[in-house]
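Encode chain A's predicted structure.
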Amino acid sequence: MKAAAAAELVFIPSPGMGHLVSTVEMAKQLIGRDNRLSITVLIMKTPFDKSKVVSTTQSLLLKAAEDRLKFVELPQDDKAAAAVAELRSKNAGNFMSEFVNMNKHHVRDHVTKMMVSTESGRLAGFVVDMFCTPMMEVAAEFGLPSYAFLTSNCAFLGLMFHLDTLSRNQDVTELKDSDAELEVPVFVNPVPAKVLPSSVLHKEGTSTFMLGIAKRFRETKGIMVNTFEELESYAVKRLTEDDKVPPIYPVGPVLHLLKDEKEEDEEVIQIIRWLDDQPPSSVVFLCFGSMGSFSGEQVREIAQALEQSKHRFLWSLRQPPPKGKVEMPSEYQDLNQVLPEGFLERTIKIGKVIGWAPQVAVLSHKAVGGFVSHCGWNSTLESLWCGVPVATWPMYAEQQMNAFQLVRELRLAVDIKLDYKRDMRFSSIEPKLVTADEIENGIQRLMENGDKSSTEGIKQKVKEMSKKSKVAMKEGGSSYNSIGRFIDDVIINVHSS
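Encoded structure for chain A:
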C-alpha cells in the first residue's frame, strides 16, 4: 500500500462541463506539482444531464485518474432530483442553489468516511466552485478551511466584490436596463450596467444568491483564479492590494488541451480535413459554447452576413431547446430547415456548417484566422492560447462583461456586440435581432489584413498574449509560481491547525 499524502483536498465543482473540466485540470496541475498533496473530486449529478454530457465527463475523469486523484460520484436522490428539475423547468434562476443544498448531506457523509479512512491523508480543506459556496458550511462543521477555485477571471471577481459592497446601500437590481456606468476598482474604464451579468440584476432570487457568493468568497482562505497576471495585470494588482480580499492566486490558463475520444469520430476527422484544404488564417470560426443557440430569424441573418462577407467560414450551428424549456441545444437533423434556401449550395466552396465543434482542435489549426465567440472564459483563454483574435458576441452568464473587458479594457478583440443577451434561464430576456450588416462588419474587421488594417494591432497583441500565456505556465512563470504559493499555504494551514 502506498503511503498517504501529507494533505488531502476535497474539490467540489459545479456540474456544468465548463466548470467540471477546468476543475479536473486544476486538480491535475496541483498533484503534478507536489507529491505531498492528494485530491478527491466530489461529482454532483444533475437530473437534467444528457447522455452526451455524462459520457464526456466519464471519459474525462477516466483519463485524469491517478494515484493521488480520485473521483467520487455522489448519489442522486429521486425526490431531490425531481424538485430541482421542476425548478429548472420553470426557469427558476435559483435552481443551482437548491441543487447544491440538496447535496450537502451526501458531501457530509462522504467526508465523514474520509476522516476515518487510513488511506486518506490529513484533510486540508475544501476547494469550492463559485456556485458551491454553501458547501463551506459543511467544511466548517468538520473544522476545515475553505478555498475557492474560480473558473472565471479576476475582473469578474472584483466586480462581484464591488456589487456586494454597493448592495449594502442600494438595490443593485435597479441597474437593470439602465444607462448607468459604474466605477469598479478592478476596471480602468467605467463599466456600463448593460454588460453586468443578468443573474446579478434578477430580482427573483438569483441576485441575492450571486451577491452571497461574493460574501462567501471573502471568508475563504484563498481564491485560485483561472487567469494569469500578464493578461489581467490591473485587476490582479487592485485585488491583491485590497486587505478585505483573501489571497488571490492567478493559476491559469488552466485548459483541457488533450484530444477527447469524440475527436476521433468521422465527423470531426472530416472537419479537420476540410480545414487542411484551406489557406492559412483564411477561415472565420463561429462557435457559441455548450449553451449557445439562436432563433431561426437570427440564424438567417448570420447566414446572410457570411455570404456577404465572402470569407471562408466554419460555423457550429446548434438547435435551441423547445420554447419555455431549459435544456442543452441539440443537433439539427436537417440544416435546410433553418438556413436560407440554397445557402449550403451557394457557399459549398468556401464554408462548412457543422453541429458540435472540437473547439481547441479548430482554434489550433493554421487555417483559422478569427473566432466569432460567445466569450465564455474557457473559450477566451483557448483563443488566446492559440493566438486567434475574437469578435465578441456574448450570450449569458458573465460573457457580456468578458466581451467588454476584451474590447475596451484589454484591446484584444473587436466587437459585434457587447450587450447581447440570450439566457434560457430568464424567459423575460428577448434579445434584439443582430442584423446581417452588423455581423458582416464585425467579421470584416476581424479578418482584415495588411498594414492599413485597423485590427492589425489587435492581431499582434493576441499573438504576444499567446506567448505570455504559455510562459506563465512554465517553470518560473507567474502562474507556475502562484500554484506553488497556493500549495505552500495549504500545507502551512494544515500544520498550523
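The chain has 18 helices and 15 strands.
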